[in-house]
Amino acid sequence: xxxxxxxxxxxxxxxxxxxxxxxxxxxxxxxxxxxxxxxxxxxxxxxxxxxxxxxxxxxxxxxxxxxxxxxxxxxxxxxxxxxxxxxxxxxxxxxxxxxxxxxxxxxxxxxxxxxxxxxxxxxxxxxxxxxxxxxxxxxxxxxxxxxxxxxxxxxxxxxxxxxxxxxxxxxxxxxxxxxxxxxxxxxxxxxxxxxxxxxxxxxxxxxxxxxxxxxxxxxxxxxxxxxxxxxxxxxxxxxxxxxxxxxxxxxxxxxxxxxxxxxxxxxxxxxxxxxxxxxxxxxxxxxxxxxxxxxxxxxxxxxxxxxxxxxxxxxxxxxxxxxxxxxxxxxxxxxxxxxxxxxxxxxxxxxxxxxxxxxxxxxxxxxxxxxxxxxxxxxxxxxxxxxxxxxxxxxxxxxxxxxxxxxxxxxxxxxxxxxxxxxxxxxxxxxxxxxxxxxxxxxxxxxxxxxxxxxxxxxxxxxxxxxxxxxxxxxxxxxxxxxxxxxxxxxxxxxxxxxxxxxxxxxxxxxxxxxxxxxxxxxxxxxxxxxxxxxxxxxxxxxxxxxxxxxxxxxxxxxxxxxxxxxxxxxxxxxxxxxxxxxxxxxxxxxxxxxxxxxxxxxxxxxxxxxxxxxxxxxxxxxxxxxxxxxxxxxxxxxxxxxxxxxxxxxxxxxxxxxxxxxxxxxxxxxxxxxxxxxxxxxxxxxxxxxxxxxxxxxxxxxxxxxxxxxxxxxxxxxxxxxxxxxxxxxxxxxxxxxxxxxxxxxxxxxxxxxxxxxxxxxxxxxxxxxxxxxxxxxxxxxxxxxxxxxxxxxxxxxxxxxxxxxxxxxxxxxxxxxxxxxxxxxxxxxxxxxxxxxxxxxxxxxxxxxxxxxxxxxxxxxxxxxxxxxxxxxxxxxxxxxxxxxxxxxxxxxxxxxxxxxxxxxxxxxxxxxxxxxxxxxxxxxxxxxxxxxxxxxxxxxxxxxxxxxxxxxxxxxxxxxxxxxxxxxxxxxxxxxxxxxxxxxxxxxxxxxxxxxxxxxxxxxxxx
Length: 1010
Prior knowledge:
- The chain is α+β, with helices and mostly antiparallel strands.
- Helices cover 24% and strands 27% of the residues.
- Helix 9 links the parallel strand 21 and strand 22.
């Protein structure tokens, strides 16, 4: 009874405080919205110094306006004129007050907060589950301290979504969020903060809530692709710092987007695009924003009567269909399953999605003219997103596309089964290392240790999603798969297939061990035990371990417990194990124990190999991937793991190198040293380009790109220090490692390659031209890149000897090539092969093209590829073409000069290997020649050359219908827009496009919806 009485009293007091505070706030909020004060609740961050947290000093600061960071937030544009109105409550270092004038926040350089369940930027369930009163809605600024992360405050965490809808966010010195709420909920929020519930989602310390007037349109981004970043609560300092760094990257990119008013890709993770805002944050903002396209798509028809009448309509992908229908539900599915042709240009959305009444007919960009162009555009869907349209097409009555079939007289028809005879060079697996794990923290840990261990010039590291792991397309594309944690039965069976085919597997504390050795299923797994173990020369190493605890006898019904005195040793590990593949065939793996722990004597590390195929698997019950910082809140474990960290990395390296045959780095990885670039070409041309850029330059001749600042330095300019983000370009100097004489002597073009920006090392040549019109024919040539870009999120390895460049072309939209822009990727790929094979004596070199734009040595070794990013400027397409080709680097696969060497050996010839400068000059000259041919309206010539070199003649591929059924079809050729044309068993000819997988573009092809 007494407890009930006290509970009633406490409830009454809480209700009285709530009603009293609401009444006082209600009085303050009488009158027009613009004349109201701002409510401010402020508390000191728990990481502040003792001097800063003095309660008297806080109130004194508010009273005299001397400490404006306490009175109003620095996020507010008018915080410097804020004056105290009423002090409603204070206690210690917390206070609640009203201030004049009402504080204002411009969210133009903020980001829209995603709607629904999110893991980034915060773990929230952000939706309209809180009922807000329409007559007293308001926006509230939430400010949290990024440095005060505390993972053990879950019992004190205040969930922001309980008090309204989060609509925008940013980070600078602290985390800022805009919450749409009402008077009732801000009152309840204030009461909760008075009761010391000052930690919000993710364990960040809240320092301020403040009602504000909001103006501007926050930037949009494709938030649906971000849920893979974190799927568990942050653990430890390292994960928290990585999360905060990613928040700051997004916010700094948004600030750049708002300045330049253009779409920019986020640096980390790639594939996320931030676009200028299109919707203001009104207090009646709808939950779901649909997309509509002005004008009538049916009016966008082909005008020219001279064009050939196609025979088969190309496919219309889900993304384009969703835009045409304007429905959010179909667009949501399109965003999830968007198709990305490899590699396709980016197109400024304004070129298609705007319909200006005064625009002349000659300026209209017809949808049929941008097939296969990837569109990066801001789309408001459940907050914000961006879509990628692999192609859009005009399906007017009677309009179809005819395939460009192989000419019957073609003599260079390569069979897909033909292998490249390379002597000692046999590359069965591409240099991809794939990671599959049950948590993003594990993925980050594994990736970090792989980055520090493997040869950086030989391997690319990718994360394997659940959907990709269940598919078979990755099996012949990976030289190593690393699995961490638990996997399902279906993926375990995929891993068995992979090893049967000769694959290499490293399983870290994973239940995949049960698939090979089912006897371990009978054991209880004690996770995260700190024990000692031995492996090779490493003895008595203390690390986190998964321990198998076996029953003492068949009669005992319970597993061994910690308090039992008797600990039973594990049964003998079998020397072999039989495993069946999907076809039911049995395979015998040889099993060997490499290391054991010293308490239960169960295996720490096992090696299983399959002699028949060379497949290998290392099973480690040690957490070799876990960084000691993950356990910094457990002092005893943290100290032990720090002492063992060197041994951890050495053991990981030894397992990869000795047991799995990977190429590991013997030297510690060093940071790249950036230097100046050099502007090469005729002096008049250089001055012409610099004069055009003067208006865009900032003081000290700085040109700001989306990811890079460029400083053009003449003889009097003091060059800034070079870095990943700043590139000084010497206008009047020549490089030491690039022969300008040999380059220009071999260059026969009129425009292409006549202006060059060369650097020994830079982040990516694509960064130099991103988002800015520089000069038609300008090329950027890096000897090495630190962040080479490939298709989608792929990485292009850039070791010494790889020939890389980015070429900028300005193509009139009303020209033959401008009307068929997607053909440009084929043209460039053809030019690279043609430039080599056109040299007398080099015609028979086994260099081929894989659709749409990969360059192969024979049929198995990829040695080159390209991407094309395109934006529209007036009546021109500004195309930035990034190319990478292995010229004289034999890793990671092989190179062009290797092919020349093999040909000389087999044919007793003495063909000279190609120098770096000569190769580049020949390629630029050939690209210009083929561009001129196509612009002379001779597109058929390009197709003839393309078919001469491609590797798909009469190839049979599997095509999947929209309903999920599959059929075998024969490849015929490509259509006028570069799509693959195939013929079914029934004689039906149709176009297909890739299914979007990241590994082999021909492994999955999608048929159009009929």
